[in-house]
Design brief:
The complex is a heterodimer. By secondary structure, chain A is mostly helical. Chain A is built from nine helices and two strands; from the N terminus they run ααβαααβαααα. Chain B is an alpha/beta fold. Chain B has two domains: 3-223, Rossmann fold (3-Layer(aba) Sandwich), CATH 3.40.50; 226-304, Alpha-Beta Plaits (2-Layer Sandwich), CATH 3.30.70. In chain B, 32% of the residues lie in helices and 28% in strands. Chain B has ten helices and 14 strands. Chain B has helices spanning 47-54, 98-108, 114-122, 138-150, 168-183, 195-201, 219-223, 237-249, 271-280, 295-303; strands spanning 3-16, 19-32, 35-40, 62-67, 70-72, 83-86, 156-160, 187-192, 204-209, 212-218, 229-233, 254-256, 262-264, 285-290. In chain B, strands 6-7-8-3-9-10 form a six-stranded mixed sheet, with helices on both faces. The chains are: A mainly alpha, B alpha/beta.
Amino acid sequence: MRMWSVTTSELMRFAARRLPRGLTIGVVVVAIAAVVTAVAQGTEIRYPDALEGSFLGAGQLLVYVGAALGASAIAAEWNTGSLATLLLFDPSRVRVLVAKMLAAAIGSAAVVVVVFVAIAGVLAVGAAVSGTFERDSGVVVTVPSDEADLQIADEPQGTAELLEVDEEAPFARNAVIYTGRVMGAAALAAVFGVAVGALVRRTAAVIGGLLILAMFGELAIGELLRFDTFWGPARSLVAVAVGPIEFAGFQNLQGPYLAYAFAWTAGAVVLALVWFSRTEVATGPR
Amino acid sequence: MSAAIEIEGLRKVYRRGRRQITAVDGLDLEVPVGGVFGFLGPNASGKTSTIRAMTGILRSFDGSIRVLGVAAPRHLDGVIDRLGALVETPSFFPAFSGARNLALLARARGIPRARVEEALDAVGLADRAGDPVKGYSLGMRQRLGLAATILKDPELLILDEPANGLDPDGMREMRLTLRRLADSGRTVFVSSHLLAEVSQLCDRVAVLRKGRCVFQGSVEELVGQSQAVQVRVHGDGDATQRAAAGVRALGHEVTVRDDGALRVAIPPGEAWTLVRQLAAHDLWVDEIGPLERTLEEGYVELVHGDESERGATW
């Protein structure tokens, strides 16, 4: 009961913050601008393909947005000092941190839904004005692994990749499944963000660290050791969103990235709970 | 439960690299149930660290603390609904309104929304409740902090320098609010270095010096602990100066006050020896009596009693 009270309070706090609203509005504005530009230029908007491309691009971005929202949910409170005020109301540090994780996870998943619904709506209007709701018949079936944008080894030393396209799969069902996966990945990333944010107390440090890991660290080490390039938190969390799905035209990623993502998140959560339970919220001698 | 707060041997050391700073050094304190308890001490005497430890903000310290009968911070969760605390300058989300900040805190404890309006009204913030906190003055933030503290309708209030940033009207309102809370049966523990406020508000006080309690008792006891008498000798200024020199020669500390009276550091019970010595030198005492000490004098005597230690830190 008390856990629920604290969690709903954190959810209200999450919803009232400017960062989630700003990021959501930003993504929607970009989608609207892209569609308006396409319509103005007379480009034909092929709804299924445009939706698929937009979802895949936005999905990866939203995983990092989830991590950012999670990290800022606690780091902002460290910086404003309002965490001490909250702990004077609820001294159970574990409950407060878990409530923040739950709220960030639920909130980030909700952001995914809002963004995807907005993108689907904007593209539908665009397709109705200047385009079609028919699917493009020309889709890539297979590419070599070195040409793939995202890849994962099916064996530690392997590099082979397979792109599968299920042209028979119902498009709407796949869009919903994909949305669910991105929601799950964003929620997991948000929990990871809260945990790491509790440890480092800076939103920028969490996001900067993840991006650097994604772009250099994890990829470089994976390639260097001829190991799975999705072994680290930054890329494994994204892989949860864009992993093996039957979303036509997208790669069928293989590998234990889901286990990696859960392991990283669970590790960060345990570390954060232990540390947060013992740390001094106030810093200086007075 | 005889005491609202019991502290035994509290010791808190902060580590800054290789340096160790002892903020609280073996503090013993007992705050009775009911009334206003003043926690006095100069800056860096350990007041805030003690309050942080009492309220669970600090987790690692030596000694034991019991708040409302339970060990803090381990079992604080069981009594947190009966405890309202304000530590340092209260911090809130600057972009949220005062009302929204309180509503979120209320929600976390399942406190009815109506209590938010009541608390804001009680501290005189009702008309600015919808404004973002970032537009609040320091005094308004203090009042919002007090509103958060009374949101739970607690039986024990722990307030760290609540008058900080308040103008004279605000300080008076704060004083009246705290007095009203104490008169309704609550225990109010308030740290301050504003002696005028303390003398008007508190029933009992503890004085902290370098992390240790150097006095604990009623305000009257603190004021009445003077070990000096005031003496007026018959005659002109020359007689006063002769008397001062004579008393000094006897080994007593003497101050000649502006109104011609002498302040002699001697226990009132031994003042008769002074009268006899002055009479032996043809100096006749017109008036003699225990010196009425102000709270400030009592406080300064306790806090800066040992001049050789003045200026040292912790």
